[in-house]
Write a structure and sequence with these properties.
With 288 residues, this protein is α+β, with helices and mostly antiparallel strands. The chain has three domains: 91 residues, Ribosomal Protein S5, domain 2 (2-Layer Sandwich), CATH 3.30.230; 34 residues; 138 residues, no CATH class. Helices cover 60% and strands 12% of the residues. It contains eight helices and four strands; from the N terminus they run E-E-E-H-E-H-H-H-H-H-H-H. Helix 1 links the parallel strand 3 and strand 4. The radius of gyration is 37 Å and the shape is rod-shaped.
């Protein structure tokens, strides 16, 4: 089991250039990849997608990448260029017999418009970027697996608490049905003393009441859902959607049992069971 939330980072240094990739994931119903890349790495999005997408079966993954040169940044001003501009302007003034000397403002204006070499990041190295992405995925997977193991333990604990309440309800079910049957018999006899124990009308009414108050089918379906959920906790593939669906079905069966049983003790157990199940459903939302 893996959690949908996690973070991973990877770096790779190639020919003096550092490539870094970060992946942050949060829970979402479907899989979604969002890329925030600098201009020089925008063309590498498909490479990053091919590496990262297989690891995101569900959830939103935000991918950021950066590239930086390992060399020190160049100075804003180049003294040698200023000296060269001063000499050339002075020579032109001398040849043209223009009085005066070049001012600082003259040099700055000319310096700003003079083409010169600029520091730039070299063309992106796809192999280095891919290596950084794989390291980020490895880091992300480790964190999500660790969180997933914690989720699995918590889900098993909550499932056991829920199952205990359902088992208690199962033990109460026969007595609840018998109690309602006797109560129904007493009411019918009080309304019409002509009812006898072997009266066909009484038998039909009791049968209908027993059918309406019987929770055997709901308990049977709950047992099946519990087994499937327990098995799903050990699945190797992403199955968060399946677990979420089973939790919803168990919640629905619990509501039906509470409505049909019409027993204070069963109702109390159903409320406790639904409380544990609601906690379980909240945790399932984070399972990939």
């Amino acid at each position: 089991m893996k959690s949908m939330t996690g973070f991973g980072r990877g770096e790779c240094l190639s020919r003096g250039t550092r490539y870094a990739v970060e992946i942050g994931t949060v829970n979402r119903r479907n899989a979604e990849l969002v890329f925030n890349l600098p201009r020089e790495l925008a063309v590498q999005e498909n490479i990053l997608r091919e590496i990262i997408a297989p690891s995101v079966a569900r959830g939103r993954a935000t991918v950021t990448a950066s590239v930086s040169s390992g060399q020190e940044s160049r100075p804003l001003l180049e003294p040698a260029l200023f000296r060269r501009l001063y000499r050339e302007i002075s020579a032109v003034q001398s040849d043209l017999k223009i009085p005066g000397v070049p001012t600082l403002s003259d040099l700055v204006r000319l310096y700003a418009s003079t083409p010169r070499e600029t520091s730039s990041v070299p063309q992106a190295d796809s192999l280095a970027l891919a290596k950084a992405a794989r390291l980020a995925v490895r880091s992300l997977e480790a964190m999500r697996a660790k969180e997933g193991a914690h989720l699995a333990r918590e889900l098993r604990r909550l499932l056991a608490s829920f199952a205990a309440e359902i088992n208690a309800i199962r033990k109460l079910a026969p007595a609840v049905t018998a109690k309602h049957r006797e109560a129904m018999r007493a009411r019918l006899e009080a309304l019409d003393p002509a009812f006898a124990a072997d009266d066909g009308r009484l038998a039909r009414e009791l049968a209908l009441f027993a059918d309406r108050s019987d929770i055997t089918e709901e308990l049977s379906r709950l047992e099946s859902h519990l087994k499937q959920f327990s098995t799903g906790l050990g699945a190797k593939e992403a199955n968060g959607r399946t677990l979420d669906f089973l939790a919803q079905e168990m919640f629905r069966e619990g509501n039906t049992i509470g409505a049909k049983a019409n027993s204070a003790e069963v109702t109390r157990r159903v409320i406790k069971a639904k409380t544990e199940l609601e906690r379980l459903r909240e945790q399932v939302q984070n399972v990939e």
